[in-house]
């Protein structure tokens, strides 16, 4: 009877996995099929490498190279800001944070992960943009503003996963480093963090993936027009 139940559960789990894969495959197929006519008319090279996006012109132009470069620049800036802060915050929460502070800090970080992107965008529009405008001049709508905002947005993902990866390392690693004469800091940064690098890399990849996927708030804070990119 137990073996029969296990077979049923295995079949259910397999069906669920196949459903997820099928859903993603159908979405990609739908986009590809509906994009073929446009790609045939515009040309894949002109679409990807074109520097002008003016669909209302006669004839229209559909170049998305400035958008691609803008996304790359903003994502790189967000990674430079968010990754070091996120990893150091995870180290603090795993090995330095007092229990009373942890009970406040952990729910706060989890709450940040649940805030809608549009709220982040509004925060950037009313706080970050004026700060950059008053500090550096200009109108404040820049890739720097978008990078700072995206760096804040990816923090909960990086902190949460990195902390879990650090806490998953056996205590014997830390105790062994102390027994060999290493300080508390050296034990963490030269033993614990290298041992948790796979989980930390996963956190970085997921964080950058979210940064790439978030476009609404970036469109508020950066100018992606052709003239904003050097060489275009």
Automatic annotation (TrEMBL):
CDD domains, per the entry: TM_PBP2
SUPFAM superfamilies registered for this protein in UniProt: MetI-like
Top-rank lineage group of the source organism: Bacteria
Matches recorded under Pfam families: BPD_transp_1
Annotated compartments: Cell membrane
Record GO terms (molecular function): phosphate transmembrane transporter activity
An individual GO BP term: phosphate ion transport
Segments passing through the bilayer: 12-33, 64-97, 109-132, 144-166, 187-212
Membrane topology: Multi-pass membrane protein
Residue span, ABC transmembrane type-1 domain: 68-232
A Gene Ontology cellular-component term: plasma membrane
Key words, A-Z: Cell membrane, Membrane, Phosphate transport, Transmembrane, Transmembrane helix, Transport
InterPro entries per the UniProt record, alphabetical: MetI-like, MetI-like_sf, Phosphate_PstC, Phosphate_Transport_Permease
PROSITE patterns hit by this protein: ABC_TM1
Sequence similarity: Belongs to the binding-protein-dependent transport system permease family. CysTW subfamily.
Described function: Part of the binding-protein-dependent transport system for phosphate; probably responsible for the translocation of the substrate across the membrane.
Name by which UniProt lists this protein: Phosphate transport system permease protein
């Amino acid at each position: 009877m137990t073996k029969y139940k296990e077979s049923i559960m295995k079949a259910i789990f397999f069906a669920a996995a196949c459903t997820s894969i099928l859903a993603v495959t159908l979405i990609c197929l739908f986009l590809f099929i509906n994009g073929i006519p446009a790609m045939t008319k515009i040309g894949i090279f002109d679409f990807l490498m074109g520097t002008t996006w003016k669909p209302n012109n006669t004839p229209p132009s559909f170049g998305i190279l400035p958008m691609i470069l803008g996304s790359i620049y903003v994502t790189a800036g967000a990674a430079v800001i968010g990754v070091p802060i996120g990893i150091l915050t995870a180290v603090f929460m795993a090995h330095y944070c007092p229990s009373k502070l942890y009970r406040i800090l952990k729910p706060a970080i989890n709450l940040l992960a649940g805030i809608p992107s549009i709220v982040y965008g509004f925060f950037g529009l009313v706080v970050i943009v004026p700060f950059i405008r008053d500090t550096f001049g200009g109108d404040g709508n820049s890739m720097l503003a978008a990078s700072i905002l995206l760096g804040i947005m990816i923090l909960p993902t990086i902190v949460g996963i990195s902390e879990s990866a650090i806490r998953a390392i056996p205590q014997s690693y830390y105790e062994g480093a102390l027994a060999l004469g290493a300080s508390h800091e050296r034990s963490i940064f030269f033993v614990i963090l290298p041992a948790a690098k796979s989980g930390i890399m996963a956190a970085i990849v997921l964080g950058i993936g979210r940064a790439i996927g978030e476009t609404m708030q970036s469109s508020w804070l950066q100018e992606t027009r052709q003239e904003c990119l050097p060489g275009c």
